Amino acid sequence: MDNSHLWKNGYWGGIWKLKVPPKVKSMVWRVCKECLPTRVKLNRRGVTGPSTCVLCNDPHEDSYHIFFHCCTTVGVWHTAGLWHLIEPLLNKFDDALEIIFHILEHTATTQEELFATTLWSIWKRRNHTLWQQVTESNRNGVERATHLLEGWRHANIKQLPRTTPVEEAAAVTRKHGSAASSSSNKIHKWQKLRRGRLKCNVDASFSMTENKLGIGICIRNEEGRFIRAKTMWFSLVCSVDVGEALGLFYAIRWVHELRLQNVDFEVDSKRVADYFNRSNRDITEFGNIMDSNIHYCHSNLENSHVEFIRRQANAVAHELAKASISLTSFRIFDDVPTCIHDLIFNEMLQGYCSQKNKKKIHKRGNSNI
Fold first, then answer.
1. CA distance 261 to 306
2. The dihedral of CA 152, 155, 157, 163: what is its sign?
């Protein structure tokens, strides 16, 4: 299998530093990873079908054409007032990734945010045309992008970073993380929490045969009772560390969307937990994703942190991640999914028995005084 695209140089950190909705970052990242299911990409993977552009019938629908060369897309960029940034780059670059990185690295913040969100809207427009036979005007495409961006900014206006320096918050987290790290090697089964806290278990699964990354997220209360779960999958090939970092990326943002606080995130990737708690600087793609995770968590989730646990203690998230790959779309579960029902029950039972034994020991100790 050719994994050479995994090592492409570029301004990967620019994607994760964007102040845009997570789904926009994810879409831009997928474009740069060359894993969007354009018709040319599907043909190369052995999927029989046309290679013509859904929007203009050009014979070669790849990411470069869809986002920067298609005549209908050019109209969207004109309407958004961004074409003057893109047009000079068409003679310089012949790859969508290079154009995106150049704009993210050399453009003002407000323009790069609108640029990224418009990319997302263009792909949305293409899919509406393909699957719903809906023809949109250029203005509709731009309005969808601006409404999404403005709505997201408004929702986050009260979640701006606090005046406390990020370094101070990071120091507090590192202090807590070092204490947790000393006992993390002993955690082999799911542990109950202190009263008033929630636990979010996260894991990633990888299917090399289907070129898919699956992510499983499960939130439970202090007693181990199920609250909510989410499964996601993406058509891409990435390193294990990057996959685990992305799992945490989506978990943190989902918890924030649910307006939850006092959450303990648990992962079975020691590198992810160590990076989060020690704030190591890393200019790789993994480091860029983790830096984004650290900043987002410190800015938006009060009194929440990330801990490392063994795979045995993370079985619920692991099963969800494996199951996600066989599902047709992202899923949110308000009731316990069948694949983890027995695991949830057994872990709650173990927690109950453990608590009962502790009470017996405490009672016996008092009687001997």
1. 13
2. negative
Closest to 190 measured CA to CA, from 11, 365, 354: 354
Give the tens place of pLDDT for each residue, 183-238: 444 445 556 667 889 999 999 998 877 888 999 999 999 888 899 999 999 987 78
Cα distances (angstroms) measured from residue 197 to each of 111, 192, 220: 40, 10, 9
The token pair that represents 83 in the structure block: 């074409």
Both tokens of 209, joined, read: 């045969």
> Would you give the DSSP letter of residue 305?
E
CATH code reported for the domain at 173-361:
3.30.420.10
pLDDT, one tens digit per residue, over 296-320 is 999 999 789 899 998 888 999 999 9
Amino acid of residue 92: K
Are the C-beta atoms of 118 and 82 separated by less than 8 Å?
A: yes
Determine the Cα–Cα distance for residues 285 and 295; give it in Å rounded to an integer. Answer: 16
Cβ atoms 32, 10 nearer than 8 A: yes
Q: Which two tokens stand for residue 219?
A: 């939130």
232 within 8 A of 330, measured Cβ to Cβ = yes
Q: Check if the beta carbon of residue 340 is closer than 8 Å to that of residue 229.
A: yes
CA distances from 108 to 21, 45, 103 (A): 18, 37, 9
- The neighbouring-strand residues paired with 229 are 218, 333
Domain residue spans of the chain: 11-158, 173-361
Determine the distance from the C-alpha atom of residue 298 to the mean position of all C-alpha atoms in its chain, rounded to a whole number: 16
| Parallel/antiparallel/unpaired status of strands 305-308 and 226-235 | unpaired
Residue 189 φ then ψ, to 5°: -140, 160
Closest to 218 in 3D by CA, of 351, 346, 352, 340: 340
CA 264 to chain centre: 17
